[in-house]
Amino acid sequence: MNGIFEPQPQPERFGDPARPSGDGFESPPQRLRRVLRTRPAESALHRILAGSADLFRGDDYPQRLADAAAGAQRAVTTGRRIAVVGTRGGAGRTTAAALLARIYAAMRADVVAALDLAPAAGTLGLRLGVPHAPPLEAAAARLETGTPDSLRGLAALLTVAEPANLLVTGRRRASDPWMPAGQGLSDDAVWTPAGPQAPPVWTPSVGAPAFTGPAGSASPTAAAGPAGAARLSRVISRYCPVTIFDCGPGLTDPAALWAVEHSHLAVFVAPASVAGLEDAVEYSRAWRHTPALAAVPLLVLVVQSSPDRVFTASREARRLRRAGIDALHLGRDRHLAAGVEVLPPLLSRRTRLEAVSIASRVLAAAASGTGVPSTAELAPERNAYA
């Protein structure tokens, strides 16, 4: 059965940052990717000074990192699926998804999967070092010929990224030949900079049905997810204790609704900005009042996406927690901000510790099925910035 799943060749594209051009010269995207992918978050001078200071003082950083990593290595009895969602492009959603996938793959001995569900132009494959990974529709279509009966067969069905226990699907494109017939966009779909967005549309309106589909259904099942995604997800969960869904921006895409409904935890990524924090408050409140979503724990991750220190992710996450919203934070990191491969060894010490701690908390929430311990039931709803 495994022999039918052979890796598929991918066409070369002009200016592809992953391959040399035909004339032997680098294109600008290739040169920038080569430079940025190896640039550490901390400068050489900073690393030298920090190392020198450690010679004269006790450093408990290794112990704190080991303690945080223990949570990411916890045993998982059944496959856990984590949906990474957000309402705004550029908030750090794909960065968070790639970072979680990297941390779990590095800390665990079993296999981790990361699926790009963005409707178009997703960058999860690029952030994980496999920009040519085929989309999930291609993997799902190959499932029509049979089901892999081993981990090796699953690895041939998807794309293996470094480390070798990380399986990835690539960016989805509505015009690619692997899009199954009959799965095109409806006439009422609209195009956005992030790709095609089709009903049902969800807005954070407390007291109103959260999901409105063509038939007026209030359930996310009214909108089917990507073709074959449910079957592919079931196969992956047989071999991968942890699966990360990287959803597109906004909650108007059927794939995002499908991913949330079929996940054990949703991570809502919000930038540390006025609009991002307002979204976190409104959507968290609507989430608790939406029957279709209330059963799925929600964890807000505040990301420092701008070097401006007017808003700091750690301070805003504390404010959200005081308002009864489960929230964690991820500070700004020069390596993560580069927009290329996410490599944990190149992160700053602070970011590495934050990332491992986040991964531990996220997996604990997904494994328990109850979410991160919340004070929402202990305190009445209130404005986080009142």
Descriptive labels:
386 residues; alpha/beta; Rossmann fold; two-stranded antiparallel ribbon; 10 strands; 12% strand
Sum this structure up briefly.
The chain is of the alpha/beta class and about 375 residues long. It has helices spanning about 30-35, 45-55, 60-70, 95-105, 125, 135-140, 150-155, 230-240, 255-260, 275-290, 290-295, 315-320, 335, 350-370, and strands at about 80-85, 110-115, 160, 165-170, 190, 195, 240-245, 265-270, 300-305, 325-330.
- Succession of helices and strands: HHHEHEHHHEEEEHEHEHHEHEHH
Number of helices: 14
Please report the distance between the alpha carbons of the first and last residues: 61 Å
Q: Largest sheet, order of strands side by side?
A: 3-4-2-7-1-8-9-10
- Assign an overall shape: globular
Give the second-level CATH assignment, the architecture of the domain at 78-173 and 212-370: 3-Layer(aba) Sandwich
CA-based gyration radius: 21 Å
Mean pLDDT: 77
For this structure, what is the CATH class of the domain at 78-173 and 212-370? Answer: Alpha Beta
Beta-strand portion reads: 5-15%
> Which homologous superfamily in CATH is the superfamily of the domain at 78-173 and 212-370?
P-loop containing nucleotide triphosphate hydrolases
The count of DSSP E runs of length 2 or more, i.e. the number of strands, is 10
- List segments where confidence is low: pLDDT < 50 over at least 5 consecutive residues: 176-202, 205-222, 371-386
